[in-house]
């Protein structure tokens, strides 16, 4: 949890993470997702249904329904409305979970590509390091005056350059 000032009321506790730089793969995924009207609508509904405003509206709605006696107890119509709402909200929760899974997959794919590129770079660096080692051995042999294979190693040095 992070502690941040809340609109002049001192320090408050917030569960929201501090903003970070977005992954380019996620930005591309979000842009593609925004192209679909269905995805935009599902995102907005999920965002609203997961807010405290949604909870407060329902508390007021239920209190008013019961307080103004819109229907007699056991509130059959209210129960039916709430049941239908629960069905739709559970669908939107599943859509939200699918969206989170898609994001995780996009990140995993991007990380895998990065690992593959790093592996290729490591192989190239290993090859270059081996060439440097061979050149170093040849130069060392030339400087110490080892006559065994001196001409051969000198020829190898010329072939590397």
Q: What is the count of β-strands?
A: 2
How does the overall form come out from the CA principal axes?
rod-shaped
| Computed Rg | 33 Å
Helix content: over 70%
Pattern of helices and strands:
EEHHHHH
Low-confidence stretches: 1-12
* Side-by-side strand order of the widest sheet: 1-2
Q: What is the overall pLDDT average?
A: 82
**Beta-strand content:** under 5%
Q: How is the biggest beta sheet arranged?
A: 2 strands, antiparallel
N-C termini distance = 58 Å
Count of DSSP H/I helices: 5
User: How would you classify the helix and strand content by structural class?
Assistant: mainly alpha
Structure, explained:
With 161 residues, the chain is mainly α. It has a domain at 20-127. Helices cover 75% and strands 5% of the residues. It has five helices and two strands. It has helices at 24-34, 37-49, 52-67, 76-144, 150-160, and strands spanning 2-5, 11-14. A two-stranded antiparallel sheet has the order 1-2. A hairpin with a 5-residue loop joins strand 1 (2-5) and strand 2. The chain is rod-shaped. Mean pLDDT is 82; it is low at 1-12.
